Task: structure prediction
Amino acid sequence: MFKFFLLSIFAYLFGSIPTAFLIGKLKGIDVREIGSKSITHTNLARALGWRYGIISGILDVLKGAIPTLLAKSFLTNNWQIILVAFLPTLGHDFPIFFKFKHGGRGASTFFGASIALIGIKFFLPLFIVGF
Result:
């Protein structure tokens, strides 16, 4: 149960890292003040170009995948793994670092967690059909 508790906290805090905001700040731009005013990789791409948007998107996918893979490695109960997989998306949408406001939409983080849960060979066809 202690591992579940630690992984849950890690998953939420890891998901709360505002990658697009941090990349924007490194380049001198606050993405909360431009475009859609959200800290998403799409808004970052509007401000700085598609390359920065892709970097932020990949980091957002990893924010969901890494805690989920750790949960699959260290936990045995499926409900605990699924909950840990959900928490990075919750952290991305409601980041503690912005007082639970100004979060992203969570799609990329959710995709990363989903890929880690079910595997790319099952996720890709479901994503294509859903798209």
